[in-house]
Amino acid sequence: MEYKFSDKISSLKPSAIREILKATSLPGMIPFAAGNPAPDAFPVSEVQAIAADILANRPIEALQYGVTEGYAPLIAAVTKRMKEKYDIVKEFDSVIITSGAQQVMDLSTKVLCNEGDVVICENPSFIGSLNCFRSYNTKLVGVSVEADGMNMEELEKALKENENAKFIYTIPNFHNPAGVTMSLEKRKKLYALAKEYGVMILEDNPYGDLRVAGEDIPSIKSLDEDGIVIYSGSFSKILAPGIRVGFTVAPSEVIAKMTVGKQAVDVHTTQFMQMVVAEWMTKYDVDAHIEKIQAIYRKKLNLMCDMIDSELGDAVSYVRPEGGLFIWCELPEDVNALEFVKRSAENMVALVPGTAFFTDTAGKSNAVRLNFSTPADDKIVDGMKIIGKVLKEMRG
Amino acid sequence: MEYKFSDKISSLKPSAIREILKATSLPGMIPFAAGNPAPDAFPVSEVQAIAADILANRPIEALQYGVTEGYAPLIAAVTKRMKEKYDIVKEFDSVIITSGAQQVMDLSTKVLCNEGDVVICENPSFIGSLNCFRSYNTKLVGVSVEADGMNMEELEKALKENENAKFIYTIPNFHNPAGVTMSLEKRKKLYALAKEYGVMILEDNPYGDLRVAGEDIPSIKSLDEDGIVIYSGSFSKILAPGIRVGFTVAPSEVIAKMTVGKQAVDVHTTQFMQMVVAEWMTKYDVDAHIEKIQAIYRKKLNLMCDMIDSELGDAVSYVRPEGGLFIWCELPEDVNALEFVKRSAENMVALVPGTAFFTDTAGKSNAVRLNFSTPADDKIVDGMKIIGKVLKEMRG
Question: Are residues A306 and A326 in the same domain?
Fold first, then answer.
């Protein structure tokens, strides 16, 4: 049979980048291309104890169907923490649990966008979110990213020129892939512009707790007085990604529609995993655990930055991230990034070329994204030495 | 802010039925409206042992990101069982793991349908699937269900009249809500018609292993020589629904597109839950467990049928199911089904009115769906006596 696929799925073409990345799963490859949490950042003994307790005392609750909105004690724990610690969850807001934060992107697009509608996003941005928006046949309009976040003049221009823009997608903290954090001034400006143009904001904050330097900046959602911000949160980076538990805080009217959408896509998020997270949040010291993983990532980030400075030196430029998992590294003009990625892979170091992250997949970029959370410390050293050598060879 | 939602989500309106069902969550309500497995059908001690073993010996694998296609040993176990036991998984097929079978409906529609395309389905059919198809702005075309499955003349007419039909959705075994099983003759005819008109088949088989009488009938997928059948399987009914693990067997080209779609909606299915299912399938006797739950449901189904006969008698008509979880019960013409459901709820028995399951939500039906898996045996007796009394009162 000759298959005819939908326009929306046909628009998601495997790219040349995917072919390069295929090689990166070879055994022995040093993984600077991934985005996995460090294995020692998982609270393994806590999860063991919690899982055993739940299955011993409440097995049927863990194995039976749950409700679409999520496990009530988890919703309560998330709401409490978000309110008390981050001033998120306003009177007009509700919280639902999602199957990872990726599902927040999916449900937001599903409820807000018709085909052809515009999503405004940082350029570059997280490829998983961009592909999600694309899968609804939306049009992506990119806004440049600076050291302190989105270029606000470009954002206003994008809002002016696109009356059918439905939301602005942003990763304000420790941006993936750019590594930068949006200033408070720009957060306020972004909020004011969204309000002025009647466009919602989708604030994606998977890395917010992974700050290793500098001071916390209030989330855009905490500024929300008008019910225009959808906030996406995740347990992937502070607990574990394999459990696929995220959440969203958004105006109750929007949450009601997202719930109808979620019912149709996966009924509800794994009940057992939701119970594990709820127990972890209520019986253990989440803040102490976050401090522990911040220490792990602080060490790794500093190590990788030191190695960039010593092995790549002045040939490259980067903004030193204050947290998160990624460093965006601009290569010198005389080095082609795709070729650099290819040669690094041949030498057993996996990188992602910057072009992967742009709204226009044919977009030009001469950067690479480096991840420091996945490789062990000694592999950071080894890998940086290797790509330093590759760079020197390519520059003659 | 005044929210503008997408056309597709706006089409999923809360119905009058939903209001009636709200009352059914009251404590003390006898649950004939649900579709939950019986609590004693869960392999609790096995899951306890497996979960403890995984978290003791392979915690990082369980907590870290997995691949979108699914946990490789689970894919292997599913492939082996489907091949050996059901002659499913042809040379041209692949298998991926999904977040419950509901996600198979979501991904199938995503990859096959543009807005306005037609999905042909049984009428009545499972409301969760119908709402999923609706959420892509497809047009539903319903085909009547008879005691031996879809009306084939109506199906051919629907195929003739709808050139943009993309797939035929069917629940051939122990249909939800109709309770009927499609004959082998009709399965062959359905396959031949789909082939003739170049339309795919989405075969949803969540209840197939829950046969309590009669002989197994080959799946439509087992007849597939042309790569036109997408098969949806689930662990919700034979293991547990709260873990949200399902799978799909489909032509590799289709699976490749579904994988791209899944990456954008939830990255991957919970790794820990996939590992639990894989261990259960490889280290325990799945067939013995299925026999155990068949015995549980055989008893419950027979009990409810006996109670229908004694309490509702000749006033109603139904096809005695050979398995599954549901009985479709046609009420006498002089009784309004919605009113019957309302009065039953007032007397603490929850039912779903037949109208909930039709492609046209304004469709006429004078049936109710009865579920026998959720209520304890004594509650089946109590509940049937109550609705028998309600029926008598309504008929004066």
Answer: yes
Cβ–Cβ of A102/B254 closer than 8 Å? no
| A56 assigned to some structural domain | no
pLDDT in tens, chain A (396 residues): 889 999 999 988 655 566 666 666 788 999 999 889 999 999 999 999 999 999 999 999 999 999 999 999 999 999 999 999 999 999 999 999 999 999 999 999 999 999 999 999 999 999 999 999 999 999 999 999 999 999 999 999 999 999 999 999 999 999 999 999 999 999 999 999 999 999 999 999 999 999 999 999 999 999 999 999 999 999 999 999 999 999 999 999 999 999 999 999 999 999 999 999 999 999 999 999 999 999 999 999 999 999 999 999 999 999 999 999 999 999 999 999 999 999 999 999 999 999 889 988 666 789 999 999 999 999 999 999 999 999 999 998
Q: Are residues B235 and B332 in the same domain?
A: no
Is the minimum CB–CB distance between B289 and chain A shorter than 8 Å? no
Residue B6, chain A, CB below 8 Å: the answer is: yes
| Number of domains, chain A | 2
Chain A / chain B CB contacts < 8 angstroms: 232
Residues 6+ apart with CB under 8 A from B179: B318, B319, B320, B321, B324, B326, B327, B328
Residues of chain A contacting residue B21, judged by C-beta atoms under 8 Å apart? none
Q: State yes or no: ipTM above 0.90.
A: yes
Interface probe, candidates B272, B293, B373, chain A, greatest A C-beta count within 10 A: B272
Query: B283, B298, B321 — which closes off a domain?
Result: B283
Is residue A288 packed enough to be buried (19+ CB in 10 Å), middle (13-18) or exposed (0-12)?
exposed
Q: Which of A236, A252, A283 is the C-terminal boundary of a domain?
A: A283
